[in-house]
Structures are given as structure tokens and as C-alpha cells.
Amino acid sequence: MRLKSLELQGFKTFPDRTTLSFDSGVTAVVGPNGSGKSNISDAIRWVLGEQSARTLRCTRMEGLIFNGTPHRKAQGFAEVTLTIDNSDRGLNFDSDEVAITRRYYRSGESEYQLNKASVRLRDIMELFLDTGLGRDGYSMIGQGKIDSIVAARSEDRREIFEEAAGIARFRYRKEESENRLARAEDNLLRLHDIVSELEERVGPLKEQSEKAQKFLALSEEKRTLEIGLWLDTLERSGRILREHEDKLLVARSQYEDAEKAIEAIDAEIDQVFRESTVCTAKADELRQKGSSLEEAAARKDGEISVLENDILHANENMARLEREMQEAAESGRGTDAEIAEKRAQIEQKNQQAGQVQEEEGACVAALDELRRGMDEVSGRIADLSRAIADRTTESTEARVAAGTASSSVEELRLRRESAEASSREKQERRAALEAEREDYARMLTETRERIDALKNAVRGRELRLESRRKKVEEARKQSEALHLDTQERERRARLLEDLERNMEGFSQSVKTVMRETKRGALGGIHGPVSRLLEVPPRYAVAIETALGAAMQNIVVSTERDAKLAIGLLKQRDAGRATFLPISTIRGSLLREPGLEDCAGFVGIAGTLCRCKPEYEGILHSLLGRIAIAEDLDSAVAIAKRYSYRFRVVTLDGQVVNAGGSLTGGSLARNSGLISRKAEIERFRAEAAELAAQTEQAQAQWKALQEEASREEAELTAGRAELATAQEDAVRFETAEKSAAASLEALARDEEALRREDEESARRLEELERARQEAEDRAAQAAEQIAALQEQLNAIRASRDEATGRSDELTARLQEYRLRLLEMRKDVSALEAVIEELERRRAGHEDRVESLRQERQSVEDSLAGIRERMDEARVEAERLRAEARQAAASVENVNRKRMELEQQTTELRIREREKSAERETIGHEVARLEERRGNLQKEYDEITARLWEEYELTRREAEKSYRKPEDPQQSRRRLNEIKTGIKNLGAVNVAAIEEYKEVSERYAFLTSQMADVEQSRDSLRRLIAELTKQMKDLFLERFTEISRHFTEVFRELFGGGTAELSLSDPEDVLGCGIDIAVQPPGKIVNNLESLSGGEKALVAIALYFAIMKVNPPPFCVLDEIEAALDDVNVTRFAAYLRRMNRRTQFIAITHRRGTMEEADILYGVTMQDEGVSKLLKMSAAEIEQHLLAQKNA
Predict the structure, then answer these.
(1) Which positions ≥6 away from 1184 have C-beta within 8 Å?
(2) If you compute the radius of gyration of the chain from its CA atoms, what whole number of angstroms results?
(3) Strand partners, 1002
(4) Mean pLDDT rounded to a whole number for the chain
């Protein structure tokens, strides 16, 4: 077996995974101080199981983990693996290679592995027993061990010698056997105590068992009768419950019918409200329609007025046209007469001319030139006359157009004035409508705000009403619950008082004694123990358990009183009782040192109760030597500490008996004899408090009911107010819409009037312009006529002059020629006049025709106007008829709305009546539900008692038990059974099983005691054998070590003598080991007189001697030669070389002599701060290095 390698990771200054390989021979680890050399030996010591942080040169185990540097982060764990070649099976492990790994995390967790399988530290330590390895072996030698083995006391040197002697395994077995022997003797002592206690308990338990069996028989009969009676009660209660369910179903049906009726009434009210709203809207719509019709009729009246005005203007135009036509006709007739006259004159002149024609011929030649001139003048005169006629016509037409335009202008002005008046009326109407709409809008807004406020108020009242109703329900439930709780507390108090009065739970003998005492037949009777003690509620269970049956012991004044009572019981065959005479009984309190300091200790039972001073002896006698603990664990610990010499009872009634037996389990449901009085007072106090709370709850319930009623009334009023506000809102909204529609119609009418006014203004402007143009044309024509007339006069004057010249020229002619010329001149003048007259006549005919056509047009227009006026009158009458019809409809709708409102009032009355009916039915339902709840509670209580007391459901009970045929007879029998059970007194039902268990346990423990005694004897023999083997082996190995120590000492010191001796040869396995040395040339009486180097050399000699007897597979030497001089270092190194045939040496050193003997050299450096590095060199490399140094 040899060491193969050491692997470090995260250990101290080795953060990286670092592996050291070891061969046979000597391996030296060198390096400067602080480089981390000794961390390698610490790693080996740690992986072999070292637990001391100080030994590993740390303050705590976390210091083994690499803690980081400024350039390297800290590691989370430290791990070291030691690999050993086990091919020779030097270790008791079936593997050629054994790898021991230890890992430690910063969290404090640690783990061990053996060939990567998790193991315990104990497994590692057992593996290296007697090999010299391990944390306590001699395979790890440091300066501390070198110093300690010399300076230590002789007794402290034994450990390393025992390891070398190979008796560590035997000592381990011996210590284990001794521990087992101690446990066996403890068990045997405990078994003796338990068996003794069981012997005391078997007899009483047998008596209690027989009594308990009788009790069980009566209890079973009681169970059968009680369950049967309960089933009968359940059947009757179920029948009554079903009847109440039927009544409740009918009441609920009536309640639901009332609810449905109220819902139907509400629906009808809603329907009537909707119809009323529709009527209101319809009335407003009809009002709006009537207003619209009246306005339309008014507009038609306006149109008729306009048309009448048009007819008036047309009639005026007709009259004017008639006058103009008459004037034109008269002017035409005058012209015809004049033309006829002129024609007659021309004919006459022509006849005269024909007469003088002949005379003219003579003058023609002379007068040709003059005639041509006269013809030109006549042509010009004719042209001027025609021009004057044309201008006259134009002037006449212009005057007519001006007159027509003036008439149209006046008509348009009248129409505009009418339109302006209508516009002003509409503006006033619009202002009124706008004000009306604003009023309706304001009222609508206010109403809607009021509706929102009312809705919020209604919702708030609904929520408050719901909250009040919930509070009422909660108050009712709380009141009922408190009432039931009060009744329950009073019932329990009465039950306990009855039990106390009837002395339930006491034996018949106790009852007899107390009854006779009341009658005066007995004297000196103070009462049962349970009635004489005052026990705080916290300790009641513990005191009752501690007293047990002694609670019914009767305290008397003297022994004579006790004898009289016993004689009475015997005479009446009333059973047995225990009497405690005050005069003779004395007790003492338990006094154990340190008892009060025990964890969980409460006190001595006798000190936790109070009684009259005269009863203190009784109290201390019964409870003075019983301790009270908080719980079972504390009780067991206290009893064990004081070797089970007294009883310990816990607060919840568990018992650790003297001797070590334990009694415990669940407690009875009923109250104990001691705590009964306190229970009665507690129940009475609770009942009084609950009664007061019930009264408060009922008062609160009534107050909440009144609040709920007020809230409901306020809610009803709020809903009615909300409905009225909603009706007003609908009415105001309809009125606002009607006003808005009227405003829109007025806006359209005003727009039409505006457009008509604009058109009239434009037409008026055109007519004014046309009149002005006509007047301008007439003035211009008059001016032109005057100018032409002047020209005509001028031409006529010139013609007169030509005639004068002609006369002057023809003066020389004969008279006849002058006459002919005058005649022709007259004819020409007459023809010109005729022509002028004919032109004038033609112009008059055209004017007459034009006037006739204009008159016809006016007549046609007048007929159309009259037709339109008749249609407008018919339409206006129709609109007024429709408006009157709409007004009549409004009245009808209002009457219907009033009827609907009356119907709503009647429905609300019906709703209130139904609500009152529903409330009455609701109270009835609540009463029935309360009664049903009480019945159901009674039913459930029986069912619960059936389960609590017998763990049966009703179905299971009906399958297993029958209802009694005669319930009265069964109740009488049940009372007899209960009386019989009471007469039995306190019964320990568990005594049957306990007796069986105790008897079986007694037999078992008796046999167990024999087995333990046999095991104890076997262990004693084994310890004796191990002691003998250890003694023989230790003496044999110690002799060898002493001999080798003498030899090695002489070799290392170069002479002298040394020996080892036992300080007490009679106590080979317990005595110390003394060392005596005599270096050459020195006399040493005490090891302390040696120098440091000599002490180190003595220790090295001792370790080498041990290694010769039991060489370890490997040995780590951590600077053990540091105190030697160079000569002794050389001797040490040479001897180390001689020892390495059977042991690998890993030497951590600074000394050159040790390095020279090494086969492998590991150099440890610290190139980076806090991080160690390794450098491996073989022996050849070392020699080359040394030669190089020598040559240098």
C-alpha cells in the first residue's frame, strides 16, 4: 500500500486543480516561507478526517476555501482527493485503488466520498484503524507533535503507542462493548423498576377490569336503548320538520305570489307610466302640429292679402289701360275724318288742277328748275315730319313705361313693407320661441340634474336599505345565535349543577356517607377530597389525573369517625370507601435538588392547589410527591433525570409513573369532579354575559329594523319623486323639441322673406332704373321733337322764300301759271297732310292693339290671382280645421293621461297593500324558518350526539339498531341502567385492555429481563477478553518499540542510551509512558533539560522506532528537523533514506541535507499574490543543478 497522488482544488492557496504524484522513496516539498508548503500537509491531514480548525491553522472551516485575490475571484468550495494504491489490500477495502475525497462548501455543508461514493467520517476513520494513518495516527508529524511528545505528560503519550501497537481497533470494540454494557445495565435497572411497578398494578387492574366489563355490558345496553330512543326522536322530529316544510312551502309560495303580484303591479305601473309618457309626448306633438297648422293658415292669410293687393293693382292697371285705349280710339276717329276731308280737298284741287293743267304746261318749262327745288324742300319737310312722329311715339312709349315702372315700384314698396311687418312679427315670434325653448331647456337640464340626483339618492337609499336589511339579518342571526348559546350555557350549567347536586361521578359509598351526614346520622365528615380543594383551571386536568380515584376519598376528623362511617357502609351493604382522618395523616413535599430548574417543570402538585389549613396534611399526603410538567417530553426528561423515583403528570393528563411506565391517551369529554364547580361558575358567567349580549343584540335588531323601515319609506318616496321628475323631463323635452321645430320653421319663413325682400329690392332697383331710363328717353324725345320742329319751321321758311322767288321769277308769267302753281302746291300740301295723318293713324292702331293685349294679360293674371286666392282661402280653412282637430285631439290625449295618472295612483295603493301583505307573509316565513331551524338544530344535535358518542350515522344506526316498541318503557329502563352505571362509581374502562396489556407486558418484560441479563454477562466476558488481548498485544509491541528506540537513539546521537517504561506496570492499558535518555557525555535527569535540537532528535528517534514496529504506508514530515544542526540533519536524512523501503516519506523542509536525500523535489512558489504554484524536479535534475552550482 502506498500513496499515489494528492489532488487539491480551492484549498487555501491552491485555487486551481493541482495534483502531486508520489513514487516510492523520499519526496521533498520546498519553498520560501509563506509560499504554501505546509498547506499540502494540512490538505492530507484534512482529507484524513481532521475536524479542528486550529490544527489546520484556521480560525474556522471556511478559512480552508480559497478566499480570492485582487485578480482572482473566491472559490465556492474546497476539495482534496487522496489516492492510495491498495493492490496489496493493506486497507480493508475491496479495490486496487482507494480515493478518499473531502469537500467543504461555503454554506457549511461537508461531504466525504470513497471512490466517488458518499460515506461518513466514521467510515473513513474505521478504514484507517491500526494503519498509522488517520487524523490521530503517526503518519502526520509536524513540529507541534515533535514538541508535544517530549513535553507531554506520560499519560498523554499513550495514544500514539496504542496506534503503533495496533490495539486501537480493540479499544474501539471495547469502548463500544462498554457502552452497550452500560445501556444494558440501564435497561436492566429500568426493567426491574417497571416489573416492580407492574407487579403492584396487576392486582388492582384485575379488579378494575371486572368492574369495567360490567360497566361495558350496561353501557352496551344503554347504547342500544339510547340509540333506539334517538332514532324514535329523529323520526318524530323528521315528521314534524316535514310538516313545517310543507307549511313553509305554502308560506313561501304565498310570499312568491305576493312578490309576483307586486312585480306585476310594478310592471303595470311601468306600462301605465310609459303610456302616460307616450300621451304626454303625443299631446306635445299635437300641440306642435296645431301650432304649425295655425302658422301655416296665417301664412296663407298673408298670401291672400298679397293676392288681394295684386288684384287691386291689376284693377287699377285695367282702368288705366281702358282710359288709354279710349283716348287712342278717339284720336283715331279724328284723324280719319281729317284724312277724308283732306282727300276731298285734294280731289277738288285735282279737279281744279285738271282745269288749269293746261295752263300749267305753259309754265312747266319755266318753272322746272324751281319745281325741283321745291320737291327737295318738300322731301325734307316730309322726312322731318316723319321724324317728329317717330319721336312723338317714342316719347309716348317712354311715358307709358315710366308710369308702369312707377306703379310697379309703388306695388313693390307696399309688398316690402308687408314683408317687413311679417318679418318683424316672425322675429318677435322667434324671440318668444327661443326664450320658451331656453326655458324648457333650462327646466329640462334642471330636471335631468334632479333626476340624476334622485337616481343617486335612490341608489344610495337602495344600498343603504340593502345594507340595513343585511345588518338586520345579521343582527337577527347574531341575536338567535347568542340566545341559543345562552340557552346552551345555561343547560350545561344546570346539567353540571344536577350532576354536582346528585354527586354524579361519585361512588355509591361516597353518596351514602354524604347523604347520611346531611341527615345527621354521621359526624366528623368533611367531604370528598375533590370538594375540599381549590384548583386553578389550568391545573385541573393534571390534579384530577394525579389524584385519580383518591378524588373520592372522604376526609374525616378522626379515626373514630372513619370507623363509624365504615360500619354504616358495611351495615347497609353500600360499598367501600377510603377515609382520610385529619388527626393521623401527615404528608410531605417532594424536594429534589435542581428540580425547579428542569425544563418544562411547572411545580409540585401539592403546591398548585389551595385548601383550608386543616387539610394541608391530606393535600401533601396525596399530592406532595407528584411533579407537574408542561408536556410529556418534559415529564419523561424529568423522570429520567431522577431515575423514575416519583410520578410526573403533564398539564394535559399524561403520566410518567414511578419506575418508568407511561399512562396516557385522550381524556373523557365530561368535566372532572374537581373542575366541575369551576365549570358551573364559568358557564353561569358566560350565560349571564351572553344574555346581556343577547339583549343588546335584540335591541340593536329592533333599532336596525326601524332604520330599515325608515329607509324603505324614504326609498319609496324617492322613487315616486324620481318618477314625477322623469315625467317632467319627458314633457320638457317634448316642449323643447316643439319650440325648436317652430324655430326651424320660422327660420325657414324668415329666410324666404329675406330672399323675397332681396328679390323685391333687386326688382325695385331695376324698375327705378327702367323708370329713370324711360323718363330720360321721353325727355330726350321731347328735345329731339323740338329740334326737328325748329328745323321744319326753318325749312318751311326757306320754302316760302323759294316760293317768293318763284313768284318773282313767274311775275313775268301769266296769272294762270301762278294759279296752277298754287293749286298744285295746295294738292301737295294736302297729300303731305294726308300722309302725315295716315302715319299718325297707323301709330294709334298699334298703341291700341298693345293696350288691348296688355289689358288681356292683366285680365288673365287677375283670373290666376283670383284662382290662387280662392285656393289659399280653401287651404287656410283646411289648415284651421286641422288645427281645431289637433286641439281636440290634445284634449282627448290629456284626458287619457289624467286617466292613466289616476290608474297609477290606484296601482301604487294596490302595491302598498301587496307590500304589506308580503311583509306579513315574510314574518310568517321567518317564524316558520326559525321554528324549523330550532327543530333542525334539535335533529342535528341528536345526529351529532349519535356521531360524537357512538360514531354512527343515522343510516348506520337504523341498520344496526331498532326503534323501541314502547318508548316509555325503554326510557325507564335507560334510567335504571344509568343509575346502575352511576352506582358503579368511577370506572376505568381502559382497565380491561390495560390489564391485558399489563399482564402481557409483565410476562414479556420478565423474559426480556432474562435476555438482558444474559446479554450483560456476554458483554462482560467480551470486554474481559478484549482487555486481555489489548494488554498482551500492547506489552509485546511496547517492548519492541522500546528496543528499537534504544537502537535508533544510539545511531542518531552517536552513542548514549535511552529506554521507555510504563509508569504503572500493573495498569498496562491506563498508565502513562515515561521516556529516559542519556545522550553521550551528558547526565539528564529530566527531558526539559535537553536542548531544542536534542528534544527534536529524541522525538524523531521515538517516531522512527514506532515506524520500525508498525510502519505506515506513508508519512508526512512537516519541518520536523528544523531545530537540528547540519550534522544531525545529515544523520536524519541518511536514516530517512534507510527507512523508506517500507514507508513513503513526504518531507516538507528548508534543510539542504534533507533535500539531497530526496528522490523527487516539489518546489512551491507564489508567483501571484495568494496563489501557490508547484514545480516538480527529479533526482537527476537535482544533481545537475547541484553540479552546476558547484562548477559556478
Answers:
(1) none
(2) 74
(3) none
(4) 77
